[in-house]
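Re: weekly structure request thread

Next one in the queue (351 aa):
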Amino acid sequence: MIELKHVYKSFDGCQVLNDLSLKLVEGESVCLFGSIGCGKSTLLRCLAGLEQLDSGEIVFSGGERPRIGMIFQQFNLFPFLTVLHNLTLAPKQVLGMSTAEAERIAMAQLDSIGLAHKSHLFPHELSAGQQQRVAIARALVMKPQILLIDEPLSSLDPISRGEVMDVLRKLKSEITLVISTHDIQAASELADRIAILDEGYICEDGSVDEVLTSPRQEATRRLLSYMRDLHYTIESVQFDRPELNSRIEQFCSRYGLNAKASRYVQLVVEESLNLVPLEGGARLQLAKMNDDMRMMLDIVTDEAGVLYADESTCRDDLSLSILRGLCDVLEERVEGSMHILHMELSKARLQ
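Done, posted below.
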């Protein structure tokens, strides 16, 4: 349906898309993965016609541009219009629909996403998940052939995420989708293909199993590790503990762990940080292991002179004792200048 050929796009001398080529097939669902700044949003905006290419071309089958809708990461609903008016504005002004016809189509879309009863409200009266669903409905009233969605699940709580995922699962069978996301679990459900962006070009493109299970490129393996795991850098003793706890809670929710399991993981992290010197900073990595109900925690510092998990030299005897009761594995090692405290969390406590 659409082919991007050797596309280049820069902003203020910064190359964002760099010789990017990609094919989009009608009826297919494609997820775009990549680190922040890799060009995912710019690629979507170029497809939508909101940005002009510096060079390269976008070729449409049959030579005619299909109807393309786009849903922005920040929803971009008009704050001064009700939900219903947000949906009817474009059909009336762009397609020339009558008010009655536009409202009929809008209410049908709102009903399909379970928000017909919210039609009279303003965007600020809705939750983030409800605003996202309204944004999807607003795009669909224009009857697009392709729907571009930028980070549809970012900053959503677990309930809102589930509601939006229900809508996206339904859409997958109805329309061509191109979705930028950092959510591997969502992509595994929604995507027929995954395209990895690295430094402005497509470094890997294949089926979900090919890319997520057997990636060919080192850039893909590195990116997937960061997307699957929680990476957190502590710069000093006065780091933001509530933020870290929130990140842990989101991480656990992503893998379907309940609130009790999340509190357990937070406790392990808290006690482990009592053992390591934070004055010079530390790097934390929380990972879900291949076993469905096992997690691994690594805390890395650059101070390699003292053993953290030894009774004779540890900083906090009580925390060490607690960790030995909470973890199936507690060990440490030194690799060059890095001191690594490695823990594997009790499988039974995560269930």
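The two ends are 46 Å apart (CA to CA). The mean pLDDT is 89.
Next request, please.
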